[in-house]
Inverse folding.
C-alpha cells in the first residue's frame, strides 16, 4: 500500500491510499474533513477533460478527482484575470494570466494530490487528485 506524505495529506485534508497488488480491503469510519480514497488498478484507456472553474475568487469544484492522462481546463467565469499555477513537485505548472473565457488546459500524468493556487488571488486554493484507479470523494 502507498500513501502520500503526511505533510501533503495534512495540508490538503486528505486521506489517500493505493494498493499495488490485488488484495481485499475494507475502509470504514467517518471523515472529519473532505477526503479521497482510491484503490489502484489499471487506469481507464480513454483520457478525459474536466473543468475546475474560477468563480468569485474560488475554484469550483474545490476538490477534483481525475485519472492519470486526463486534462483539466480552468475556465474563468470572473470579469477579471486569474493566473493559475501549482508548485506540487510531481506535476508543477503555471498557465499565466488569462481573462474571462474558456480557460487553459493542463494535462496530468502523475498520481497524487496537486495543490492549485492563483498568483492574483492568494486565498484561492483547490486540489486535484490524480488517481490510478476508481476513486470517490466524500
Amino acid at each position: 500500500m502507498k500513501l502520500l506524505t503526511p505533510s501533503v495529506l495534512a495540508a490538503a485534508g486528505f486521506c489517500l491510499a493505493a494498493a499495488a497488488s490485488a488484495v481485499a480491503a475494507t475502509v470504514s469510519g467517518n471523515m472529519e474533513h473532505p477526503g479521497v480514497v482510491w484503490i489502484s488498478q489499471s487506469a481507464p484507456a480513454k483520457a478525459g477533460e474536466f473543468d475546475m472553474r474560477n468563480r468569485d475568487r474560488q475554484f469550483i469544484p474545490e476538490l477534483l478527482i481525475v485519472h492519470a492522462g486526463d486534462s483539466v481546463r480552468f475556465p474563468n467565469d470572473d470579469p477579471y484575470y486569474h493566473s493559475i499555477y501549482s508548485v506540487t513537485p510531481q506535476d508543477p505548472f503555471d498557465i499565466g494570466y488569462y481573462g474571462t473565457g474558456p480557460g487553459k488546459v493542463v494535462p496530468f500524468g502523475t498520481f497524487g494530490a496537486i495543490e492549485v493556487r492563483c498568483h492574483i488571488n492568494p486565498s484561492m486554493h483547490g486540489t486535484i487528485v490524480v488517481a490510478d484507479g476508481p476513486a470517490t470523494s466524500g
Q: What stands out?
A: The mean pLDDT is 78. Helices lie at 6-12. DSSP finds one helix and 14 strands in the chain. The longest strand covers residues 101-107.
